[in-house]
Queue: 2 jobs
Job 1
Amino acid sequence: DAKTTQPNSMESNEEEPVHLPCNHSTISGTDYIHWYRQLPSQGPEYVIHGLTSNVNNRMASLAIAEDRKSSTLILHRATLRDAAVYYCILDRDDKIIFGKGTRLHILP
Amino acid sequence: DAGITQSPRHKVTETGTPVTLRCHQTENHRYMYWYRQDPGHGLRLIHYSYGVKDTDKGEVSDGYSVSRSKTEDFLLTLESATSSQTSVYFCAISQGGLSGANVLTFGAGSRLTVL
């Protein structure tokens, strides 16, 4: 199974950028990196994904290390609504495994 | 929830009784997944399906069975529920690895309590 490592929790101030790290040292060449987040009392929702190049969308940016063994999800300007658990996963095959994710706390 | 519905949303049952949770999709997606979520454990994959009648085990499949007789429905059955199966169950769907990216869409969850 494709494994990722994330910090258990992080804190950030409102209206500041947030960088959420993820290590995936066993990544294979065709593995996509995905990020999901789960707001309180809701199901997880897709945030962003990438393979090699950095990616941007309306929710966030994904920065992928050159060796692809780590990545960083960037929330450019955190709001209180961004408080959630963020999951980094590797899309290796059909069997999609989640870890425990990072619980992000936003301080007003 | 983008064409994915879970039922029931809440259920309380007794130990030893059978329970079936249903996941229904209107997206015609090939892949369907069942996860459970417990405090301190994140999301854990129970079973998944990659087509009608095609299923496979996940990380925590013991005590669970699944069936997929048509594209739109994926059933999760607890043959004899135990208190350790008290959890929130999430279904997810995906088109599959088109363009190499398997993006999941999740349902709202089904909260099961086994007394």
Note: The first strand of chain B starts at residue 4 and ends at 7.
Job 2
Amino acid sequence: QKEVEQNSGPLSVPEGAIASLNCTYSDRGSQSFFWYRQYSGKSPELIMSIYSNGDKEDGRFTAQLNKASQYVSLLIRDSQPSDSATYLCAVDRGSTLGRLYFGRGTQLTVWP
Amino acid sequence: DGGITQSPKYLFRKEGQNVTLSCEQNLNHDAMYWYRQDPGQGLRLIYYSQIVNDFQKGDIAEGYSVSREKKESFPLTVTSAQKNPTAFYLCASSIAGGTGELFFGEGSRLTVL
């Protein structure tokens, strides 16, 4: 079982729709969860972090964490073509300090 | 402005040659990391360092070497022992013992001819 799993997609949504990206992780001791956005040919940039169960909102982005289900998701409301990118889920691991484990990423396309 | 600088951005290498990728940060971060990314893949950790003069192997360290002689610098050498070195290499840093938020450089794309 991989540490972090994401649906590889691609996920395609129309402009203005809600895009939902999902991620599961294997280590129940994980405490820190991150979503990175990566445009084609560029480096990842952090867009959301979440550390406790529930929802965390930042503008059009909402991260949701459910530790009991070992599940973290990212919702993008009012999706824009500029949101088209690959979204990487990253999780720490309670037994291995100082590093993150990344999923393979979900490619999102928002069409006008 | 604070940030992470990687160089070169593009590098071509002949088989059998060692190459060194530079990574410098002025964020005063203690921890630094090297990741490799292949097309359609996530990030795989090569090496990481929490403090100066100390570093740990990641998941795919074979064929790579690093040094951490200064807090600001964490160069990566891709040796001839690395069987498939063509990839996008990303350097990152974070506050040691912190929340794990990584800040990335712009990356170095290595192509072996």
Note: Chain B touches chain A through 24 residues (CB under 8 Å).
